[in-house]
Each structure stands twice: as C-alpha cells, then as structure tokens.
Specification:
Blueprint lengths: L11 E5 L4 H12 L3 E6 L2 H15 L4 E4 L18 E4 L16
Length: about 100
C-alpha cells in the first residue's frame, strides 16, 4: 500500500465489475484501506479467488455477489444498503449511442 487514507476506514464501498482488472485493483485497494467492500461481477471463479486472496492478505473479506452488470435490476442486500461510496467500472459490452439508447 502506497498511501493511507484514514477517512476510508469503515466506509462501505460497492464496486461493479470488481472481480478482476481495474475493478479488482479497486476492490483490493479499498480493502487495504480498511473499507468494507462489496462487489459484483459476472466472472465467478476470478471473483471468488480475489475475495479469498484479499481476505488472506488483509483480514477483511469482501462480499462478492455474482451479477451480470448490464442487467438493470439488482437487489441490494440490507448488509450493504448503507453504501458510502459507489465505484462503477464500465463493462466491455458494446456501447450504445446516446441519441438511440432506450435507457435514456
């Protein structure tokens, strides 16, 4: 850990796409700061391995919830309903044009 941010200790952090790559690095970094981390990802094996590895290294086990991120609905557990910070990592799914997207 390069820097310490005491304000992050005990904060609840929810990360989408937090199982590997940049999202995985964010999961690890927030856990190292003492944050209570919950994350979703579609990659179950990699996410489970990451949660176990972070638990071994930091003593804090991130909560992993399997999820296909583009699904627009997600039931949030009461355990993470008091989220202090949301980190949304965009998926690699095809981008939609703003003018034609039915989601806007």
């Amino acid at each position: 850990m390069l820097a310490s941010y005491p304000d992050l200790r005990g904060k609840v952090v929810f990360i989408t796409g937090g199982g590997n790559g940049i999202g995985g690095a964010m999961t690890r970094a927030f856990a190292e700061q003492g944050s209570l981390v919950a994350f979703v990802d579609i990659a179950e094996d990699a996410s489970t391995r990451l949660a176990d590895q972070v638990h071994r290294e930091t003593g804090a086990k991130p909560l992993y919830l399997p999820c296909d991120q583009p699904a627009r609905s997600l039931s949030i557990s009461p355990a993470i309903s008091a989220t202090s910070l949301l980190y949304r990592r965009p998926s690699r799914k095809p981008r939609r044009a703003l003018a034609t997207s039915p989601f806007w």
